[in-house]
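Entry 12.
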Amino acid sequence: MTLAHLPALVVVVPLLAAPLVVLVRRAAAAWAIATAACAFSFAAAILLSAEVAAHGPMSYHLGNWPPPWGIEYRVDALSAFVLVLVSGIGTASALYAWRSAAAELSRDQLYLYYVMHCLCVAGLLGMTVTGDAFNLFVFMEIASLSSYVLIALGRDRRALLAAYQYLILGTIGATFYVIGVGLLYLATGTLNIADLAERLPQTASTRAVLAALAFITVGVSLKLALFPLHFWLPNAYAYAPSAVTALLAATATKVSVYVLLRFYFGVFGLRLVTETLPMAEILLVLSLIAIVTASLVALWQENLKRLFAYSSVAQIGYITLGVSMASPDGLTAAVVHLFNHGITKGALFLLLGGVALRAGGATMGSVQGLGRRMPLTSLAIVIAGLSLIGVPGTAGFVSKWYLVLGAIEAGRWWLAGFVVATSLIAVAYVWRFVEAAYLSEPGPATPGRGEAPAAMLAPALALAAACVFFGLQTSWTVGSARRAAELLLGGVP
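Predicted 3D structure (tokens):
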């Protein structure tokens, strides 16, 4: 096998693993196949990232049909960065599911869980690597349909309602996206993303292009849970199985941000997005509202999964805030926070799954005295919480540092102050956990001591450790994000 085929194999291997799991049906074999497929994609993504950093973008022509006639898989600095995040979290959540899914799902559902896990990971990887706008829609539907099923597998009956809400809003988002793509095809006669970027400046159908921009923006914003289109997210994260919450929180919204970046800077171009239509100003306002309101709502949540779900809406606001700056530091902040928030939320939701297993729930009441009963888990939650706040030495600090630099670069000192000030709200809701876990006595009905099983604790601790590692060693994350930002701004038509 040569590196030339990895852009296809990174998607094909988990995609083919799904029907293979259906054939074997046995839970242990299904877990082994799903984990091996995700681990292969993770290794392939790392190799692709190294290859792109050394030799530049890679293009793979499916069926040897050259673009724009055939479908192209393209890996550059941005897509390689996202591939590593998605495949890495997919592998960690698959490892975690060995004990987690067995505890939360009935035995006859286990193999179906791993089928959907493989399809979801394959869909997200396909969205990241494809260079065809309609093919992206196909992978979007693969990822979305499998996500609906994964959420519906939750033990709480409210998981069905959450999955239904997500299905309705997700379908509306996908419909808006495909209408936008149809309008672009009407205006240019092509679906290849690189070819779209070349042809759009010469098109005479200006109204069709503007309408396409509006439709794609709304459709993708529904998928990434941009305020006020986020209503599906808190329930989906709160009631899905623990491994599913971690997978979706760390990857699904991040891939949607990637899609928005691709179309804004790689297809429509900076002039159309920021001058012809005031998309930067709209994103800025919505991001500011999302950060404040979602953080304040998180303060009042008793269920920790809902608390950190609302926190995700706020953190997505920080990402889109960086996008709205449309500057090197702003885009670097957006791309690096896409990764840093992914590993942070992945760690938090995996850790909360262990808490729910041992303490019978993940509420403020159930975590009283947790620091004595589950010291490793409690410490890791605090570390991930510090990363959410943006404390120096954690991954979250790196993101917010570049956001502040981007704001100063644009001459918006008030925005730099806003980023720092709103981080204090995160201090408040993280402190609620610290107070319950370390400063409160266990209730009379609180279960005894004991960490989560090693199969659940190990991947969760690995992601928590990554929050510190990527806060101290930033050469790869910031370097990759910087190259991605330069690519996006340099590739503006």
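Annotation: The two ends are 36 Å apart (CA to CA). Residues 159 and 239 are 5 Å apart (CA to CA).
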